[in-house]
Amino acid sequence: MTTRVQHALEQLKTSGVRITPQRHAILAYLLESMEHPTADEIYRSLEPQFPSMSVATVYNNLKMFIEAGMVRELTYGDSSSRFDANVTEHYHIICEQCGKIEDFNYPSLREVENQAEQHTGFQISGHRMELYGICTDCRD
Hints:
Blueprint: H1 3-14, H2 21-32, H3 39-46, H4 55-67, E1 72-74, E2 82-84, E3 91-95, E4 101-104, H5 110-120, E5 130-133, H6 136-139
Parallel strand pairs: 3-5
Antiparallel strand pairs: 1-2, 3-4
C-alpha cells in the first residue's frame, strides 16, 4: 500500500469514517490511477475482487470522498463524470478522440486569478481550465 493511500485512510479514520474493504479498494484505485476513471470503470475494475459490490456502492463512496475533500468530480457535460484524486491546483488536457484526460500544471496561470481580482473586485476562489486535442496514442 502506498504512503498516499495510507495517509488518505488515516485522514478518513480521523474524521470518523469506517474503512471497509470496498472503500479502501476504491480509494486506492483512485489514488493509484492517473486515468481519471468514471464510476463504472472503477466498478468494472474492482468487480472481480468484490463480486457483491454494486455500482451504487462505488457512487456512494465517491460522493463521500468528494465531501471529505479527497476527490474531485470532473464533469464535461457530454459523458459520465470522471473522478480525480489529485486535489491540488492543476489543469486537464483531454483527447477529443478517446477521451483520455491528463494532468498538467502551469503556475503562471494563477496570475489570471490575480488580474481578475484586481480588475473586477471579485474574490476569486479558483478557476478551471481544460485544453482539448488529440493524444499521442490516437495520432499514431
